[in-house]
């Protein structure tokens, strides 16, 4: 996100991004640091914005 972009996206902008196929789902493993085994995963949505590039969650 750039300083010219507001902190939040409107529901309409996100709905348009979904309709255009611009949202990608990525899974990030959660690792237990005690035994270095994968304990789970979190799903993160990233937006392939036409002007701003790949936007991470948050």
Automatic annotation (TrEMBL):
Organism: Salmonella typhimurium
Listed name of the protein: Anti-FlhC(2)FlhD(4) factor YdiV
Family statement: Belongs to the YdiV family.
Pfam families documented for this protein: EAL (PF00563)
Domain EAL: 7-58
Assembly and oligomerization: Interacts with FlhD in the FlhC(2)FlhD(4) heterohexamer, inhibiting its ability to activate transcription.
Database matches in InterPro entries: Cyclic-di-GMP_PDE-like (IPR050706), EAL_dom (IPR001633), EAL_sf (IPR035919)
Gene3D superfamilies: EAL domain
Lineage: superkingdom: Bacteria
GO molecular function, one term: cyclic-guanylate-specific phosphodiesterase activity
């Amino acid at each position: 996100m750039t300083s010219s972009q507001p902190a939040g996206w409107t529901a309409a902008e996100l709905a348009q991004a979904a309709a255009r196929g611009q949202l990608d789902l990525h899974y990030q493993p959660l690792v237990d640091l005690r035994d270095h085994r994968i304990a789970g995963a979190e799903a993160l949505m990233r937006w392939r914005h036409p002007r701003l590039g790949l936007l991470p969650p948050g």
